[in-house]
From TrEMBL:
One of its GO terms (molecular function) is DNA-binding transcription factor activity. The keyword DNA damage does not apply. The lineage of its organism: Bacteria, Pseudomonadati, Pseudomonadota, Alphaproteobacteria, Rhodospirillales. Residues 8-75 form the HTH gntR-type domain. Keywords: DNA-binding, Transcription, Transcription regulation. It comes from the Bacteria. Pfam families: FCD (PF07729), GntR (PF00392). This is AsnC family transcriptional regulator.
Amino acid sequence: MSEQKRPATRADEIRQAIEKDIFQGVLRPGTRLDEESLAARFGLSRTPVREAILQLVYSGLVVKKPRQGAVVAPLDLHRMVQMFEVMSEIEGLCARYAARRMSPDEKARLAELHGRAASLCESRELDEYYAVNRAFHDAIYDGSHNEVLQDMARSLFARLAPYRRYQLNHPHRVEGSFAEHGEVVAAISAADPDRAQAAMRKHVTIQADIFAEFVSIMS
């Protein structure tokens, strides 16, 4: 488990800017993403733009079409909710096993991450909060001590990352996220697998509900 987050690359920054434009309706479904225009917009070469587009394709926000190239995909709310349903079960299992298997040092690390998020929540530094949030979930995956489950959780987390990041913009959502994390930490610290699983499932389900509300407002 890494102690520090991976530094954001130029491609990450471009991807996040495009994600924001998609979720805010600036880039509508069917809009073509032209590499040359995007490179000019960000003052960069086409290489990080191309990498950012590939990341967006992987998450499902962008699709590649013959003769059109990369275009903004329709937001498939039904599929997104299904992905969150699976994610809630996978992360719930991770939390369950973490409550049973985490070492004292791993529990201390989880509590430290939660404490680090407190000031970021209060100051609403959403990008920084999301980075710690991701490390928090990653620590729980590691704490499950089940490599198959870890691989599944990380793969699906990567697919849902744009949605999970953007729902933090909802009013008071970051405060809710922090409180839900607190419930998970308390259950894992108490070695209560049933409570840990239920708390994590609740946390992920709320994320899905919040993002679905965002999409319905946008539509």
